[in-house]
UniProtKB/TrEMBL annotation:
This is Pentapeptide repeat-containing protein. InterPro entries: 5peptide_repeat (IPR001646), Pentapeptide-BTB/POZ_domain (IPR051082). It comes from the Bacteria. It comes from Synechocystis salina LEGE 00031. Pfam families: Pentapeptide (PF00805), Pentapeptide_4 (PF13599).
Length: 403
C-alpha cells in the first residue's frame, strides 16, 4: 500500500532535501508514495529525488523542471507534463500512457521498457538521447509508443560532438503512431515496419525538398539543410540556432520570431550564406550582437519587419530596391553588398564595413555612417543629404558632385 503524501508534506520534504541532502529517512517517504493529490507549482523544480514506484497519475506538472531524479517503475498515467524540461531522469519501466508530453524537452534521460502508449508527444524534443557518454551507447530500449502523437517531434539523432550518436528506436513499438511533421535524420533508426516518410515525417538532410512545409515551432538546432528547398516553408518560432542553411532556397518563406519554449536565441550562429530569401517574410530578427552568417544572401523583395542586422556577416548580400528605412546595420560586415536603389533613410551603418558596396540610386538621407569603412566606395549616385560621416574612412570614396 502506498503512503499518500500531501502537497505541504511534499514541499516540506523537498525543502529539507535542499537544507540536508543526506536526510535519507525523510526522502525515503517519497519512494513508492502516492503523490497523485499534490498540486505542483508552475515553473517548479524537482531535483535529486528518488521517486521510484511512486504514483503521479493525473497530476498537473505543467512547465516544471525535473533533474537527476529516479522515476523507474513510477506511474505517470494521464499526467500533464507539457512544456516541461526533464534531464538526467531514469524512466525505466515507467508508465506514461495517455500523458500530455507536448513540447517536453528530454535531455540525457534513460528510457527502457517505458510506456508512452496514446501519449500526446507533439513537439517533444529528445535531446542527447541515444548516448550517455563518448564511450557508452544507450538506446531507447523496448519502449511502447503505440497510438502516441509525435507530430513535429524532434527525433533527429545526429550530434556533432559525438560522431556515433543516433536515436535508435529499433527495439521499440510504434504501431499507429502519428508522425506527421516529425523531424528525423540519417542518424534516426526506426523499426523495420515503419516508413517515416510515408507516415508524414520530414527528413532533415542537405539538399532535401521541404517546399510548403509547416516547420513552425520545430527544433532545427544544428540542423544541416544546406542547399535544401524550403520555398514557402513556415519557420515561425522555429529554433534554427547554429543551423546550416547555406545555399538554401527560402524564397517566399516565413521566418517570424515568436517567443517559444526554447531558451537560446532562435537565430544565433545561423548560416544563411548565399541563401535565396527573395519575397520572404522576415519578422522580428534582432540577434542582439549575436553573429549570423549571411554573406551573399539575397534579400531582394523580401518583407523585412522589425529586424536588426547588427554585427552580421553580410558581405555581398543583395538588398537592391529594398525599403530599409531606419534599419540598424551597425558593426556589420557589408563589403560588396548591393544597396542599388534601396531606401535607407535614417539607417545606422556606424562602424560597418561598407567597402565596395553598391549605393547607386540609394537614398541615404539622414543615415548614420560614423566610423564606417567606405574606402573606395562609390556614393556618387546616392542621396547623402544629412548623412553623418564623422570618423568615417573615406579614402578613395566617390561622393556626389557638389551643386
Amino acid at each position: 500500500m502506498k503512503l499518500t503524501i500531501s502537497t505541504n508534506e511534499f514541499y516540506r520534504i523537498i525543502e529539507s532535501n535542499i537544507v540536508d541532502p543526506k536526510n535519507n529517512e525523510e526522502l525515503s517517504l517519497l519512494i513508492n508514495a502516492d503523490l497523485s493529490k499534490i498540486q505542483f507549482k508552475e515553473h517548479g523544480h524537482i531535483y535529486n529525488l528518488n521517486l521510484s514506484r511512486s504514483c503521479f497519475d493525473n497530476v498537473d506538472l505543467y512547465n516544471v523542471e525535473i533533474h537527476k531524479c529516479n522515476l523507474s517503475g513510477a506511474s505517470l498515467r494521464q499526467v500533464n507534463l507539457s512544456r516541461s524540461k526533464i534531464s538526467h531522469v531514469n524512466f525505466t519501466d515507467t508508465d506514461l500512457s495517455g500523458a500530455n508530453l507536448a513540447y517536453v524537452k528530454f535531455s540525457q534521460c534513460i528510457f527502457k521498457n517505458t510506456n508512452f502508449e496514446n501519449a500526446n508527444m507533439e513537439g517533444v524534443d529528445f535531446d542527447s538521447i541515444g548516448f550517455q557518454s563518448r564511450d557508452k551507447f544507450i538506446k531507447i530500449e523496448n519502449a511502447k509508443f503505440d497510438g502516441a502523437i509525435l507530430k513535429k517531434a524532434n527525433l533527429r539523432g545526429y550530434n556533432p560532438k559525438y560522431s556515433k550518436s543516433c536515436l535508435d528506436l529499433t527495439t521499440s513499438s510504434l504501431k499507429n503512431v502519428d508522425l506527421v511533421g516529425a523531424l528525423y535524420d540519417l542518424h534516426t533508426i526506426f523499426p523495420s515496419d515503419i516508413n517515416p516518410q510515408k507516415q508524414g515525417a520530414l527528413l532533415i538532410t542537405p539538399g532535401v525538398s521541404l517546399e510548403n512545409m509547416d516547420l513552425s515551432f520545430t527544433n532545427l538546432y544544428r540542423a544541416n539543410l544546406s542547399g535544401a528547398n524550403l520555398k514557402k516553408a513556415n519557420l515561425t518560432g522555429a529554433m534554427i540556432c547554429s543551423a546550416n542553411m547555406s545555399g538554401t532556397n527560402l524564397s517566399e518563406a516565413i521566418i517570424c520570431y515568436e517567443k517559444s519554449r526554447f531558451d537560446k536565441d532562435l537565430y544565433a550562429n545561423l548560416k544563411l550564406s548565399h541563401s535565396n530569401l527573395q519575397n520572404a517574410t522576415i519578422v522580428g530578427i534582432k540577434p542582439d550582437n549575436t553573429l549570423m552568417y549571411m554573406d551573399g544572401a539575397d534579400f531582394r523583395k523580401a518583407k523585412l519587419i522589425d529586424c536588426g542586422f547588427t554585427y552580421m556577416e553580410l558581405n555581398g548580400a543583395l538588398f537592391a530596391n529594398s525599403v530599409l528605412n531606419g534599419f540598424d546595420f551597425n558593426n556589420s560586415k557589408l563589403r560588396g553588398a548591393d544597396f542599388c536603389n534601396a531606401s535607407l533613410r535614417g539607417c545606422d551603418f556606424s562602424s560597418a564595413d561598407l567597402r565596395g558596396a553598391n549605393f547607386d540610386g540609394a537614398d541615404l538621407s539622414g543615415a548614420n555612417l560614423k566610423f564606417s569603412q567606405l574606402n573606395s566606395t562609390d556614393l556618387s549616385k546616392a542621396n547623402i543629404n544629412g548623412v553623418n560621416f564623422q570618423g568615417a574612412q573615406l579614402e578613395g570614396a566617390k561622393m556626389p558632385p557638389s551643386e
